[in-house]
Amino acid sequence: MEKIEMIHGSGGQATSDLINEVFAKEFWNGYLAQMNDSSVVAGGAELALTTDSFVVKPLFFKGGDIGRMSVAGTVNDLLMRGAVPEYMTVGFIMEEGLPISDLKKIVHSMAKTAEEAGILIVAGDTKVVEGHGGLYINTTGVGFVPVGMEISPAQIEKGDVILVSGNLGDHHVAILSSRMSIENEIASDCAPLNDIVRSMINEGVPVHAMRDVTRGGLATVCKEVAAQSGKTLMLQEEQLPVSAQVKDFCALTGLDPLYMGNEGKLVLVLPEEAAEKALSIMKASHYGEDACRIGHVLRFEEEEEMQIKPDGGELFLKTAIGGTRRLSVLQGEGLPRIC
Amino acid sequence: MEKIEMIHGSGGQATSDLINEVFAKEFWNGYLAQMNDSSVVAGGAELALTTDSFVVKPLFFKGGDIGRMSVAGTVNDLLMRGAVPEYMTVGFIMEEGLPISDLKKIVHSMAKTAEEAGILIVAGDTKVVEGHGGLYINTTGVGFVPVGMEISPAQIEKGDVILVSGNLGDHHVAILSSRMSIENEIASDCAPLNDIVRSMINEGVPVHAMRDVTRGGLATVCKEVAAQSGKTLMLQEEQLPVSAQVKDFCALTGLDPLYMGNEGKLVLVLPEEAAEKALSIMKASHYGEDACRIGHVLRFEEEEEMQIKPDGGELFLKTAIGGTRRLSVLQGEGLPRIC
Prior knowledge:
2 domains; CATH 3.30.1330.10; 10 helices; 32% helix; 339 residues; Phosphoribosyl-aminoimidazole Synthetase, Chain A, domain 2; seven-stranded mixed beta sheet; homodimer; alpha+beta
């Protein structure tokens, strides 16, 4: 067994061999061991559910691989609702010709990331399709939301502060560099953010809203949050954290870090008085060293002064030279298949 | 917007337009309306989780389409554990060039099937990849298992009876006919089996184990059940229900209905004394009219007589001419991409 062949999708002996030789040894736990159609797991009062398919190309890149991304991405989506990630299902769609050795590396990476994130993989599925050795992974996550926990854009209040957990654009540049065979030191930031989020919640930081910065970049995420909350957000260009290397890369390519995807960063909206505590918790975490304040939610008097509709759900950028630019979600294509 | 283009995968405006114009109107509910990273849903005591990717080709076929399959298949997997299907997530991986009109038909079919099955779609994801208009759908299901409900091969006892809810092979032949442009009246049996399963549970039928007959066919499913239970199962060839049309098709093509996939049939193992009640419930249901008894679990004295290892977890077929054949799971390829 060196490469995925159509026979591995038969549902018969070859599928069973593949599951035993590649997946079972990495993902083994009591739930999967039952090999049933569904896994029955322990339950909670409120469930968070999220699903994501990963189609990133190439499958391996500096700082990560599709496997680590597929676990971290779904874990992060659960965390953003204040949920404790508990269970995950994984679905593999494999193209013929996928080297089994690559698949094993990816599955191992998923197992390691799931362990890091404290999430249990309880059900899986494999399918094989024609193609040229590609791989798509769907992960679906289940988490439990503590009673009374309500983290969503609806909680945002005027005057709230906006923080981000670190540098923008790293994942995007890592994928692009890898695809264009550009040599540099920029690694993807792909990571599960349990430590940052659980620490904040455990220490009682009153988070109003949280989103991970992925496809579409910070501007898209902030514009979506603004629209959902009805509040208007103002970002400060000078405060946006971008590493020197990514800045250089963007200067050369004309890319805008505001619209570039990360896979291990979150943006946080919370009351001014809690900002310092949140920042110090983030900075103390392995994945939050470059956390900083990047903006705030407009107050009523600011909306009046700017002569904009109150509660219009807009997003603005105060530029480095003092102008004010209205930002929308990503228009046009962006880099395809970064996640 | 006529065809899926790479821009629909950007995560920006075009993705948002696609979601609003195609998905939101079909799947709309209070959970999806929140447009958050995860959906938080009401919880229960024990959860059943299952995931499945659907890669069937062609996307439309007599009796169904990939959308109906993707909902029914996951609903059925939940039902097989005795769970009440409650919530579902859907992940779409779309190839460039997929006609939006096809996508709309498929999404509508999913919405209708979800309504029929009483399951709520609470989270979704879309990705676009290069290709030639293909579509893959992942569905992940969450159900609640009533306290004390234990349906699994471990419950199987010697002397139990094996039932199947209807004719074998219909889905397999429908896909194959459609792919080879063979004209016939054979339609896929693709359907959610809530009615059959919930009726049996509500009327107190003591089901020991249940599996839906999919990829790999009845023999593969029964062999897996046998192996998991440690008990040996005996099927009666003469009792296997196959429609006259499928029989003719198999005679011409050399296919074996024992290894052909269905998408709306289940096999049931339960005590002899409950068999008649179960059969009458199935026959009264729209999708179980052709239900019948197809075999039993070997008793100790039968194992002795056959001189086989007791509790060997094997599967046998008593052939129409009186022979006994040992059956294994599907060897080799089967028809690719029937599900």
